[in-house]
Amino acid sequence: MVYVSAVPKPRPDDVAAAPVEPAPGGPAAAAARSSRRSVACALLLGTLGATVVLLASGRTWANGTAEAGGGTLPLSADGTTVTGVPAALAIVGLAALVAVFAVRGTGRTLVSGVLALSGAGAVAAAVLGASDSSALDAEAARTTADTAAAVAGLTHTAWPYVTAAGGALILLAGLLALRFGTGWPAMGGRYERDGAPRARTAPVRVDPDRPEDLWKALDRGEDPTG
């Protein structure tokens, strides 16, 4: 006695037409992980760099002395006195770091460029300020009431170079944004209108004898008397 199977064999066309499920951990998943890592690195580097620049700019960058009344007067100048550029650019960098996630397309590229330039400018200003003496010369002239007075025994601390290191971190954040920013998410995207018609909800019946229903209707923007 011969038994015939009732289960049809799959045809080649059916096999070809079957959808192929993406394997977990495939290229799409790897790209998503890479995007998340680059976002985290950029946020960390940018925030840390701006914090370092702002803190180091408030430290003493230079020390010296000035002749006053037959004696010497110690003088010092912090980073914001020598140059306010690094601190200002750190604030610009922080604003650009936030703005990167608020724009898309060409706007994101432009903001990423601003972020990178902020870091580069902070590095350059800090390095140039490391050997600057004009701030202490001005302080010597003001203290001694002698416009020709100049600072003596000028020495510099390591804080300008710490500031430059913070600027370098901001620069790295900007370079990451330029390289990987096109694949980063944008905040507030779910609140944007896509032009699709909104589903109308059925009006809620309001009982005029219940004050709480009247207040709820007003909160919903409905006319409880209609």
Report on the structure:
With 226 residues, this protein is mostly helical. The protein has a domain at 39-183: Butyryl-CoA Dehydrogenase, subunit A, domain 3 (Up-down Bundle), CATH 1.20.140. 54% of the residues lie in helices and 10% in strands. Strands 2-1-3 form a 3-stranded antiparallel sheet.
Short summary:
With 226 residues, this protein is mainly alpha-helical. It has helices spanning 12-17, 27-57, 79-82, 85-99, 105-129, 134-144, 159-180, 211-219, and strands spanning 60-68, 71-78, 152-156. The chain is elongated and about 90 Å long.
| N- to C-terminal distance | 80 Å
Determine the CATH topology of one domain: Butyryl-CoA Dehydrogenase, subunit A, domain 3
Range of helix content: 40-55%
Bulk shape: elongated
Low-pLDDT stretches: 189-194
Q: What's the number of helices? A: 8
- Report the sheet with the most strands, covering strand number, pairing sense and barrel closure: 3 strands, antiparallel
- As laid out across the biggest beta sheet, the strand order is 2-1-3
Which CATH-level-2 architecture of one domain? Up-down Bundle
The residue-averaged pLDDT reads 78
**Secondary-structure element sequence?**
HHEEHHHHEHH
Oligomeric state: single chain
Radius of gyration: 32 Å
| Helix-and-strand structural type | mainly alpha
Class of one domain in CATH?
Mainly Alpha
Give the strand tally: 3
